[in-house]
Amino acid sequence: QVQLVESGGGSVQAGGSLRLSCAASGRTSSMYEMGWFRQAPGKEREFVGAINWKSGSTNYADSVKGRFTISRDNAKNTVYLQMNSLTAEDTAVYYCAARTGPFSRYAYWGQGTQVTVSS
Question: Rounded to an integer, what distance in angstroms lies between the CA atom of residue 6 and that of residue 22?
Answer without folding.
Answer: 4
